[in-house]
Amino acid sequence: MNTTRDKKPHIGVIGRCNVGKSTLINLLVGQEVSIVSSQRGTTTDSVKKTMELKDIGPVVLIDTAGIDDDSILGEKRVEKAFEVISQIDLAIIAFNNDFGNEEENIINELKRFDTPYILVYTKSDQSPIRKDLKATIENKYKKSIIECSQNDKTSIITLTKHIKDNIPASAYQKKGILKGIIKKDDVVLLVTPIDSSAPEGRMILPQVQLIRDVLDNDAINIVVKETELEYVLKNVYKKPSLVITDSQAFEYVSKIVDKDIPLTSFSIVLARVKGMFDEYLKGTPFLDELNNGDRILMLESCSHQPSCEDIGRVKLPMWIEKYTKKKLKFDAVAGLSSLKRPITDYKMVIQCGGCMVSEKQLRGRLIPALENNIPISNYGIAIAYINGIFHRATKVFSKKTQK
Length: 403
Known about the structure:
By secondary structure, this protein is of the alpha/beta class. The chain is 34% helix and 17% strand. Among the domains are: 10-171, P-loop containing nucleotide triphosphate hydrolases (Rossmann fold, 3-Layer(aba) Sandwich), CATH 3.40.50.300; 284-385, Rossmann fold, CATH 3.40.50. Helix 11 runs parallel beside helix 13. The chain is elongated.
Protein backbone atom coordinates (compact mmCIF):
# COMPACT_ATOMS: atom_id res chain seq x y z
CA MET A 1 0.00 0.00 0.00
CA ASN A 2 1.14 3.54 -0.70
CA THR A 3 2.52 4.83 2.59
CA THR A 4 1.42 8.43 2.05
CA ARG A 5 -0.66 9.47 5.01
CA ASP A 6 -3.85 11.50 4.91
CA LYS A 7 -5.80 12.44 8.03
CA LYS A 8 -9.16 12.40 6.26
CA PRO A 9 -11.43 9.47 7.24
CA HIS A 10 -10.30 6.32 5.40
CA ILE A 11 -12.86 3.86 4.02
CA GLY A 12 -11.62 0.54 2.67
CA VAL A 13 -13.52 -1.64 0.19
CA ILE A 14 -12.50 -5.25 0.86
CA GLY A 15 -13.58 -8.57 -0.63
CA ARG A 16 -12.72 -11.39 -3.00
CA CYS A 17 -11.54 -11.04 -6.57
CA ASN A 18 -14.25 -10.01 -9.05
CA VAL A 19 -17.01 -9.30 -6.53
CA GLY A 20 -17.28 -5.72 -7.82
CA LYS A 21 -15.09 -3.74 -5.42
CA SER A 22 -13.68 -1.47 -8.12
CA THR A 23 -17.12 -0.99 -9.70
CA LEU A 24 -18.48 0.00 -6.29
CA ILE A 25 -15.69 2.55 -5.83
CA ASN A 26 -16.37 4.03 -9.28
CA LEU A 27 -20.09 4.29 -8.54
CA LEU A 28 -19.46 6.07 -5.24
CA VAL A 29 -16.95 8.48 -6.77
CA GLY A 30 -18.98 9.00 -9.95
CA GLN A 31 -16.05 8.37 -12.27
CA GLU A 32 -13.76 5.54 -13.31
CA VAL A 33 -10.85 5.70 -10.87
CA SER A 34 -10.38 1.94 -10.44
CA ILE A 35 -9.83 -0.43 -13.36
CA VAL A 36 -12.74 -2.84 -13.81
CA SER A 37 -12.14 -6.22 -15.45
CA SER A 38 -13.36 -9.80 -15.24
CA GLN A 39 -9.70 -10.87 -15.05
CA ARG A 40 -8.76 -12.09 -11.55
CA GLY A 41 -6.14 -9.97 -9.81
CA THR A 42 -6.86 -6.80 -11.80
CA THR A 43 -6.38 -4.64 -8.68
CA THR A 44 -2.78 -5.43 -7.76
CA ASP A 45 -2.28 -2.85 -5.03
CA SER A 46 -4.46 -0.56 -2.96
CA VAL A 47 -5.83 2.40 -4.91
CA LYS A 48 -6.82 5.61 -3.10
CA LYS A 49 -9.34 8.21 -4.18
CA THR A 50 -10.47 11.29 -2.25
CA MET A 51 -14.11 12.29 -2.53
CA GLU A 52 -16.62 14.47 -0.68
CA LEU A 53 -19.36 12.82 1.35
CA LYS A 54 -22.35 14.86 2.44
CA ASP A 55 -22.39 15.69 6.18
CA ILE A 56 -18.90 14.22 6.61
CA GLY A 57 -16.67 16.05 4.15
CA PRO A 58 -13.62 14.68 2.32
CA VAL A 59 -12.91 10.98 2.76
CA VAL A 60 -10.36 8.61 1.25
CA LEU A 61 -11.75 5.51 -0.49
CA ILE A 62 -9.35 2.58 -0.78
CA ASP A 63 -9.81 -0.14 -3.38
CA THR A 64 -7.94 -3.29 -2.30
CA ALA A 65 -6.75 -6.44 -4.04
CA GLY A 66 -8.95 -9.54 -3.79
CA ILE A 67 -8.42 -11.49 -0.56
CA ASP A 68 -8.57 -14.80 -2.47
CA ASP A 69 -6.02 -13.77 -5.10
CA ASP A 70 -4.17 -16.99 -6.03
CA SER A 71 -1.91 -15.44 -8.68
CA ILE A 72 1.90 -15.56 -8.46
CA LEU A 73 1.97 -12.35 -6.40
CA GLY A 74 -1.35 -13.11 -4.74
CA GLU A 75 0.00 -13.74 -1.23
CA LYS A 76 1.68 -10.32 -1.17
CA ARG A 77 -1.46 -8.64 -2.48
CA VAL A 78 -3.67 -10.32 0.12
CA GLU A 79 -1.21 -9.30 2.83
CA LYS A 80 -1.44 -5.69 1.68
CA ALA A 81 -5.24 -5.86 1.59
CA PHE A 82 -5.32 -7.04 5.21
CA GLU A 83 -2.82 -4.32 6.21
CA VAL A 84 -5.43 -1.77 5.15
CA ILE A 85 -7.71 -2.98 7.95
CA SER A 86 -5.42 -1.54 10.62
CA GLN A 87 -5.46 1.87 8.93
CA ILE A 88 -9.08 2.50 7.98
CA ASP A 89 -11.94 4.04 9.94
CA LEU A 90 -14.68 2.05 8.18
CA ALA A 91 -14.75 -1.07 6.00
CA ILE A 92 -17.14 -1.92 3.19
CA ILE A 93 -17.15 -5.70 2.75
CA ALA A 94 -18.21 -6.47 -0.83
CA PHE A 95 -19.43 -10.03 -1.38
CA ASN A 96 -21.53 -12.33 -3.53
CA ASN A 97 -23.38 -15.62 -2.97
CA ASP A 98 -20.07 -17.32 -2.11
CA PHE A 99 -19.93 -15.59 1.30
CA GLY A 100 -17.88 -17.84 3.58
CA ASN A 101 -14.51 -18.23 5.34
CA GLU A 102 -12.79 -15.38 3.50
CA GLU A 103 -15.43 -12.88 4.56
CA GLU A 104 -15.45 -14.24 8.12
CA ASN A 105 -11.67 -13.77 8.28
CA ILE A 106 -12.12 -10.13 7.24
CA ILE A 107 -14.74 -9.58 9.94
CA ASN A 108 -12.57 -11.17 12.63
CA GLU A 109 -9.65 -8.93 11.66
CA LEU A 110 -11.91 -5.87 11.70
CA LYS A 111 -13.05 -6.78 15.22
CA ARG A 112 -9.39 -7.09 16.27
CA PHE A 113 -8.81 -3.44 15.33
CA ASP A 114 -12.26 -2.32 16.48
CA THR A 115 -13.13 -1.17 12.96
CA PRO A 116 -16.83 -0.81 12.06
CA TYR A 117 -17.99 -2.32 8.77
CA ILE A 118 -20.86 -2.42 6.26
CA LEU A 119 -21.96 -5.53 4.35
CA VAL A 120 -22.65 -4.91 0.66
CA TYR A 121 -23.98 -7.53 -1.74
CA THR A 122 -22.73 -6.43 -5.16
CA LYS A 123 -24.04 -7.05 -8.66
CA SER A 124 -27.57 -7.73 -7.41
CA ASP A 125 -28.88 -6.97 -10.90
CA GLN A 126 -26.87 -9.91 -12.29
CA SER A 127 -27.55 -12.46 -9.56
CA PRO A 128 -29.88 -11.75 -6.61
CA ILE A 129 -28.68 -12.70 -3.14
CA ARG A 130 -29.93 -16.08 -1.91
CA LYS A 131 -32.65 -15.59 0.69
CA ASP A 132 -31.24 -18.24 3.02
CA LEU A 133 -27.75 -16.67 2.85
CA LYS A 134 -29.13 -13.21 3.56
CA ALA A 135 -31.07 -14.44 6.59
CA THR A 136 -28.04 -16.32 7.94
CA ILE A 137 -25.64 -13.39 7.58
CA GLU A 138 -28.02 -10.79 9.02
CA ASN A 139 -28.87 -13.04 11.96
CA LYS A 140 -25.20 -13.88 12.73
CA TYR A 141 -23.72 -10.40 12.40
CA LYS A 142 -26.78 -8.33 13.38
CA LYS A 143 -26.34 -6.10 10.34
CA SER A 144 -28.56 -5.23 7.40
CA ILE A 145 -27.16 -6.14 4.00
CA ILE A 146 -27.12 -3.40 1.37
CA GLU A 147 -27.87 -4.76 -2.10
CA CYS A 148 -26.12 -2.69 -4.76
CA SER A 149 -26.64 -2.61 -8.47
CA GLN A 150 -24.64 -0.82 -11.14
CA ASN A 151 -27.93 0.21 -12.74
CA ASP A 152 -29.69 1.37 -9.57
CA LYS A 153 -28.53 4.76 -8.33
CA THR A 154 -30.80 4.58 -5.27
CA SER A 155 -28.69 1.72 -3.90
CA ILE A 156 -25.63 4.02 -3.93
CA ILE A 157 -27.65 6.66 -2.07
CA THR A 158 -28.52 4.00 0.51
CA LEU A 159 -24.89 2.95 0.80
CA THR A 160 -23.76 6.56 1.27
CA LYS A 161 -26.27 6.97 4.10
CA HIS A 162 -24.96 3.79 5.77
CA ILE A 163 -21.40 5.11 5.47
CA LYS A 164 -22.45 8.32 7.21
CA ASP A 165 -24.27 6.40 9.94
CA ASN A 166 -21.44 3.95 10.61
CA ILE A 167 -18.23 5.95 10.30
CA PRO A 168 -17.00 6.93 13.79
CA ALA A 169 -17.39 10.61 14.58
CA SER A 170 -13.81 10.59 15.90
CA ALA A 171 -12.61 9.98 12.33
CA TYR A 172 -13.67 13.42 11.12
CA GLN A 173 -14.24 15.55 14.21
CA LYS A 174 -11.10 17.45 15.17
CA LYS A 175 -10.00 17.25 18.78
CA GLY A 176 -8.85 20.33 20.66
CA ILE A 177 -5.18 19.65 21.35
CA LEU A 178 -4.94 21.81 24.48
CA LYS A 179 -8.63 21.93 25.33
CA GLY A 180 -9.03 21.92 29.11
CA ILE A 181 -5.32 22.61 29.60
CA ILE A 182 -5.19 26.32 28.73
CA LYS A 183 -7.75 29.11 28.87
CA LYS A 184 -8.39 32.53 27.36
CA ASP A 185 -5.46 34.99 27.67
CA ASP A 186 -3.00 32.35 28.92
CA VAL A 187 0.53 32.75 27.59
CA VAL A 188 1.89 29.59 25.95
CA LEU A 189 5.62 29.58 25.26
CA LEU A 190 6.68 27.32 22.37
CA VAL A 191 10.38 26.40 22.18
CA THR A 192 11.43 25.37 18.68
CA PRO A 193 15.13 24.57 18.14
CA ILE A 194 16.45 25.08 14.62
CA ASP A 195 19.08 22.52 13.62
CA SER A 196 20.07 20.61 10.49
CA SER A 197 17.01 18.34 10.76
CA ALA A 198 14.61 21.31 10.73
CA PRO A 199 13.00 22.02 7.33
CA GLU A 200 14.35 25.03 5.47
CA GLY A 201 12.23 28.16 5.77
CA ARG A 202 9.22 26.67 7.56
CA MET A 203 7.92 25.15 10.79
CA ILE A 204 7.25 21.44 11.22
CA LEU A 205 3.63 20.30 11.40
CA PRO A 206 3.37 19.81 15.23
CA GLN A 207 4.61 23.36 15.76
CA VAL A 208 2.08 24.76 13.28
CA GLN A 209 -0.72 22.70 14.86
CA LEU A 210 0.09 23.97 18.35
CA ILE A 211 0.33 27.59 17.24
CA ARG A 212 -3.13 27.34 15.68
CA ASP A 213 -4.59 25.48 18.67
CA VAL A 214 -3.35 28.13 21.10
CA LEU A 215 -5.04 30.78 18.97
CA ASP A 216 -8.24 28.72 18.83
CA ASN A 217 -8.26 28.77 22.63
CA ASP A 218 -7.99 32.60 22.61
CA ALA A 219 -4.61 32.33 24.28
CA ILE A 220 -1.30 34.01 23.42
CA ASN A 221 1.59 32.39 21.52
CA ILE A 222 5.23 33.21 22.11
CA VAL A 223 7.51 31.21 19.79
CA VAL A 224 11.23 31.20 20.52
CA LYS A 225 14.41 29.22 19.89
CA GLU A 226 15.96 27.59 22.95
CA THR A 227 18.89 30.01 22.75
CA GLU A 228 16.57 32.97 23.42
CA LEU A 229 14.42 31.19 26.02
CA GLU A 230 16.13 32.59 29.11
CA TYR A 231 15.88 36.15 27.83
CA VAL A 232 12.17 35.78 27.06
CA LEU A 233 11.38 34.26 30.47
CA LYS A 234 13.05 37.21 32.21
CA ASN A 235 11.46 39.88 30.04
CA VAL A 236 8.02 38.57 29.06
CA TYR A 237 5.22 40.72 30.43
CA LYS A 238 3.31 37.75 31.86
CA LYS A 239 4.41 34.44 33.33
CA PRO A 240 3.72 31.57 30.89
CA SER A 241 0.91 29.21 31.82
CA LEU A 242 2.59 26.44 29.83
CA VAL A 243 5.90 25.83 28.09
CA ILE A 244 6.01 23.34 25.20
CA THR A 245 9.40 22.41 23.82
CA ASP A 246 10.82 20.15 21.18
CA SER A 247 11.59 16.94 23.09
CA GLN A 248 15.25 16.89 22.14
CA ALA A 249 15.76 20.18 24.03
CA PHE A 250 14.23 18.84 27.26
CA GLU A 251 17.51 18.65 29.18
CA TYR A 252 18.42 22.25 28.38
CA VAL A 253 14.93 23.76 28.68
CA SER A 254 14.00 22.02 31.95
CA LYS A 255 16.95 23.68 33.69
CA ILE A 256 15.87 27.16 32.59
CA VAL A 257 12.09 26.99 33.10
CA ASP A 258 11.08 27.40 36.76
CA LYS A 259 9.72 24.24 38.38
CA ASP A 260 6.37 25.90 39.07
CA ILE A 261 5.75 26.46 35.33
CA PRO A 262 4.16 23.43 33.59
CA LEU A 263 6.52 22.00 30.98
CA THR A 264 5.89 19.39 28.28
CA SER A 265 6.80 18.70 24.65
CA PHE A 266 5.16 18.74 21.23
CA SER A 267 5.48 14.96 20.98
CA ILE A 268 3.85 14.38 24.38
CA VAL A 269 0.98 16.75 23.58
CA LEU A 270 0.27 14.85 20.35
CA ALA A 271 0.60 11.51 22.15
CA ARG A 272 -2.24 12.55 24.46
CA VAL A 273 -4.46 13.55 21.55
CA LYS A 274 -3.80 10.30 19.64
CA GLY A 275 -5.27 8.21 22.45
CA MET A 276 -2.38 5.90 23.46
CA PHE A 277 -1.15 8.12 26.29
CA ASP A 278 -1.83 5.73 29.18
CA GLU A 279 -0.10 2.87 27.35
CA TYR A 280 2.94 5.07 26.81
CA LEU A 281 3.05 6.00 30.50
CA LYS A 282 2.85 2.35 31.47
CA GLY A 283 5.42 1.15 28.94
CA THR A 284 8.11 3.83 29.21
CA PRO A 285 9.66 2.63 32.52
CA PHE A 286 10.62 -0.60 30.70
CA LEU A 287 13.65 1.39 29.56
CA ASP A 288 15.15 0.39 32.92
CA GLU A 289 14.74 -3.32 32.12
CA LEU A 290 16.48 -3.47 28.76
CA ASN A 291 19.45 -5.82 28.37
CA ASN A 292 22.41 -6.05 26.02
CA GLY A 293 21.33 -7.19 22.56
CA ASP A 294 17.67 -6.24 22.97
CA ARG A 295 16.05 -4.91 19.81
CA ILE A 296 13.92 -1.74 19.82
CA LEU A 297 11.53 -0.67 17.07
CA MET A 298 11.41 3.06 16.29
CA LEU A 299 8.18 3.96 14.49
CA GLU A 300 8.00 7.20 12.49
CA SER A 301 4.73 8.44 11.03
CA CYS A 302 6.38 10.42 8.24
CA SER A 303 8.82 9.53 5.48
CA HIS A 304 11.85 11.78 5.26
CA GLN A 305 15.51 11.74 4.41
CA PRO A 306 17.40 11.08 7.66
CA SER A 307 20.10 13.52 8.75
CA CYS A 308 23.00 13.22 11.18
CA GLU A 309 20.77 14.92 13.77
CA ASP A 310 17.71 12.75 13.10
CA ILE A 311 15.83 12.30 16.37
CA GLY A 312 14.39 8.81 15.84
CA ARG A 313 17.31 7.19 14.03
CA VAL A 314 20.32 8.89 15.59
CA LYS A 315 19.81 10.98 18.70
CA LEU A 316 17.21 8.99 20.66
CA PRO A 317 18.92 5.60 20.12
CA MET A 318 22.20 7.19 21.26
CA TRP A 319 20.55 8.68 24.35
CA ILE A 320 18.84 5.40 25.24
CA GLU A 321 22.11 3.49 25.06
CA LYS A 322 23.83 6.14 27.17
CA TYR A 323 21.03 6.04 29.76
CA THR A 324 20.73 2.25 29.96
CA LYS A 325 24.48 1.60 29.58
CA LYS A 326 23.48 -1.30 27.31
CA LYS A 327 24.40 -2.18 23.75
CA LEU A 328 21.06 -2.28 21.92
CA LYS A 329 19.79 -2.85 18.38
CA PHE A 330 17.45 -0.34 16.73
CA ASP A 331 15.24 -0.68 13.65
CA ALA A 332 13.43 2.35 12.21
CA VAL A 333 10.31 2.00 10.07
CA ALA A 334 8.81 5.07 8.39
CA GLY A 335 5.24 5.83 7.40
CA LEU A 336 2.90 2.86 7.32
CA SER A 337 5.50 0.56 5.77
CA SER A 338 5.53 -3.13 6.66
CA LEU A 339 7.86 -4.37 9.37
CA LYS A 340 10.83 -6.32 8.11
CA ARG A 341 10.82 -8.49 11.25
CA PRO A 342 8.07 -10.11 13.32
CA ILE A 343 6.86 -7.75 16.05
CA THR A 344 7.86 -10.41 18.61
CA ASP A 345 11.54 -9.78 17.77
CA TYR A 346 11.31 -6.49 19.67
CA LYS A 347 11.56 -5.87 23.40
CA MET A 348 10.12 -2.37 23.10
CA VAL A 349 8.41 -0.08 20.56
CA ILE A 350 8.87 3.69 20.57
CA GLN A 351 6.48 5.73 18.42
CA CYS A 352 6.94 9.33 17.25
CA GLY A 353 4.30 11.97 17.97
CA GLY A 354 2.22 10.79 15.01
CA CYS A 355 1.40 14.19 13.55
CA MET A 356 1.17 12.74 10.02
CA VAL A 357 -1.28 9.91 10.73
CA SER A 358 -4.79 9.59 12.07
CA GLU A 359 -5.54 8.29 15.55
CA LYS A 360 -6.87 5.07 13.99
CA GLN A 361 -3.73 4.54 11.91
CA LEU A 362 -1.50 5.08 14.93
CA ARG A 363 -3.53 2.70 17.10
CA GLY A 364 -3.53 0.08 14.35
CA ARG A 365 0.24 0.39 14.16
CA LEU A 366 0.67 -0.29 17.88
CA ILE A 367 -2.02 -2.91 18.56
CA PRO A 368 0.18 -5.86 17.45
CA ALA A 369 2.80 -4.83 20.03
CA LEU A 370 0.21 -4.53 22.81
CA GLU A 371 -1.30 -7.89 21.85
CA ASN A 372 2.14 -9.44 22.39
CA ASN A 373 2.72 -7.60 25.70
CA ILE A 374 5.52 -5.50 24.21
CA PRO A 375 5.90 -2.17 26.06
CA ILE A 376 5.32 0.94 23.96
CA SER A 377 6.54 4.48 24.47
CA ASN A 378 6.63 7.80 22.65
CA TYR A 379 9.65 9.83 21.56
CA GLY A 380 8.90 12.74 23.89
CA ILE A 381 7.92 10.63 26.89
CA ALA A 382 11.01 8.44 26.50
CA ILE A 383 13.26 11.50 26.31
CA ALA A 384 11.60 13.00 29.39
CA TYR A 385 12.17 9.72 31.26
CA ILE A 386 15.83 9.60 30.30
CA ASN A 387 16.27 13.18 31.54
CA GLY A 388 14.56 12.49 34.87
CA ILE A 389 11.56 14.75 34.18
CA PHE A 390 8.99 12.08 33.34
CA HIS A 391 6.60 13.30 36.03
CA ARG A 392 7.03 16.97 35.26
CA ALA A 393 6.54 16.53 31.50
CA THR A 394 3.37 14.43 31.82
CA LYS A 395 1.63 15.67 34.98
CA VAL A 396 -0.13 18.48 33.11
CA PHE A 397 -2.13 15.66 31.44
CA SER A 398 -2.11 13.05 34.21
CA LYS A 399 -2.57 12.96 37.96
CA LYS A 400 -0.69 9.70 38.34
CA THR A 401 2.61 9.69 40.21
CA GLN A 402 5.59 9.01 38.01
CA LYS A 403 9.38 9.06 38.26
